[in-house]
Amino acid sequence: MKKISILIWDRHTRLFHWLLVLAFSFSMTTGLLGDIDLMDWHMISGYSILGLLVFRCLTGLFGKDYGQFSRFPLSPKSVFSYLKGQNDFPGHNPLGSWMVVVMLAGLLVQALSGLMTTDDIFVEGPWVLWVSEEWVSWAGEVHGVMFRVLIALVVLHLLAILFYQVVKQQRLVVAMITGNKLREREDEAATNLSIGRLLLLAVVAATATWLLIGM
């Protein structure tokens, strides 16, 4: 049967994905090196990740592609059907959908905890002055633990991509670049947000992030 190429991921979903890859990689590198001269860049990358997450939440609510949260098959019934062999999901399958939710939540916890961390010498998050010492101590511990959790999630994500590429012959990386996937049936194609609406969501996300950082 001839497969049909349809739009699955709008440009905002693809833009978010690849910018997040860059921001997280940079944040991980500067954090692991531990060089005090890189801490300002580490914090900037953290702010960038927070802004991207706010943007992703907005597009998850107002976008029109398969990255829209309402299109995620998260119900237990969907998960059980997938585990029993159903594999007909244009966008994320149930396990992939839950992975997205968990990774977004983990990144949000990591970014917010970073706003409350300090080394008591050179580096101080913008929320340190507004929370108690107990919160600062707790945030520092969470920031360290969640970093390891996120690394594990990234490794699991990469292994899943490799599995789908090799075993199921699904080119997920290509789909996240072009936005299109090959389907055996003509599913409902995603709709691109207009440039104007996309810029509006980006401005709202940037403003909200600026307010969060400066509160």
Show the helix and strand layout.
Blueprint: E1 4-7, H1 11-33, H2 39-62, H3 76-83, H4 94-114, H5 133-166, H6 172-178, E2 180-183, H7 195-214
Helix pairs in contact: 1-2, 2-4, 2-7, 4-5
Question: How would you describe the overall organization of this protein?
Answer:
- The protein is mostly helical.
- It contains seven helices and two strands; from the N terminus they run βααααααβα.
- The protein has helices spanning 11-33, 39-62, 76-83, 94-114, 133-166, 172-178, 195-214; strands at residues 4-7, 180-183.
- The protein has a two-stranded antiparallel sheet with strand order 1-2.
- The radius of gyration is 19 Å and the shape is globular.
- The N and C termini lie far apart (57 Å).
- The mean pLDDT is 89.
Keywords:
64% helix; single chain; 7 helices; 215 residues; mainly alpha; 4% strand; two-stranded antiparallel ribbon
Strand-residue proportion = under 5%
Number of strands: 2
Overall morphology: globular
Strand order of the largest sheet: 1-2
Mean of pLDDT? 89
Poorly predicted spans: none
The computed structural class is: mainly alpha
Helix content: 55-70%
Distance N to C terminus: 57 Å
H-E string = EHHHHHHEH
* Main beta sheet: 2 strands, antiparallel
Cα radius of gyration in angstroms: 19 Å
The count of helical stretches stands at: 7
